[in-house]
Amino acid sequence: xxxxxxxxxxxxxxxxxxxxxxxxxxxxxxxxxxxxxxxxxxxxxxxxxxxxxxxxxxxxxxxxxxxxxxxxxxxxxxxxxxxxxxxxxxxxxxxxxxxxxxxxxxxxxxxxxxxxxxxxxxxxxxxxxxxxxxxxxxxxxxxxxxxxxxxxxxxxxxxxxxxxxxxxxxxxxxxxxxxxxxxxxxxxxxxxxxxxxxxxxxxxxxxxxxxxxxxxxxxxxxxxxxxxxxxxxxxxxxxxxxxxxxxxxxxxxxxxxxxxxxxxxxxxxxxxxxxxxxxxxxxxxxxxxxxxxxxxxxxxxxxxxxxxxxxxxxxxxxxxxxxxxxxxxxxxxxxxxxxxxxxxxxxxxxxxxxxxxxxxxxxxxxxxxxxxxxxxxxxxxxxxxxxxxxxxxxxxxxxxxxxxxxxxxxxxxxxxxxxxxxxxxxxxxxxxxxxxxxxxxxxxxxxxxxxxx
Length: 453
What we know:
This protein is an all-alpha fold. It contains 26 helices and no strands.
């Protein structure tokens, strides 16, 4: 819907009543009855109507407008204002009639047509809205896109596409129209028509990168991978500096078992300042999977993660960390997890995995320090107490281990395995303190739970 700048209202008093007076009133003629000056009364009622509308007294505004109409029912703007007031009062039937009356008196008045159009849209009466917008489109081409949108609502998809085609030819393509066009294709399942439209765009404007990229995407979506690959290579010939095309090429090269070319494209993607971090993450994720099957390219993966530079994010680093963890290289995995934690220190899963790696790699002092820091943030997480207790036991600090483990026990809820781990560590702590009775007591508790489960 198009909203006009209603300077009309500002000059309404200047334009409306002088025109009425000049056309219908002879100021040199004296009144021939004792009713006074009718036009003065009309003007008084009209301004009262505007005043009441301004302070949202719509019912009083309506009364004043009806008095105006009783004095002179030929002035179209009175019905226009009346319709808007009725609309505010939710008297929709009366609002429609008043606005239609205004339009009938001035069929070419854009303000009136636009208001009636807006009214029909607000009432979800799209068929009536179509008829009004057809008239408005004669004055301003912008309304043609509105008309296309309305045709989509009333499921007249062919008519909508005809308008979009016409607008594309006349003004060039636009994002808003492409969104509407793609919606039509999705609603109707006309994938072939969608591809033909994009193929035509490529033919008509072979230098425009976005046309190729859209066509590559649609070919891929339609499972026409060969055509998509050929289109991507064609774009690279025309624009060797294109970075975005490598978002598609790397995948095609991987599928084609061309590892060198795939890695080259991946590196271009992760270095690019045109490509969003989320897309780079997807490429790096695929890279991790690829290297998992082809470990001889591990060095290239390391280089790729380095190339991301400032665009590194937690997900990227975590992905690579998981790759090394799956390979059994815990030290390398830990390095990536630690970098990820610097970027997102409040990620508990990442924190937990990092702390467990500290224990696995016998970095007990780090495990003790980091778990203690984490407990300040997550004081009700039993796992953190367990990690802290394990680290303290390994550092021969049995007394401190007892304190943290006993605190952590209170936070365990329906987790038998963790409870067993706590009992074992409590047993170890008492052993460090030479309290064999207590040590055996907790060892027996752990064994009993293991047996019963």
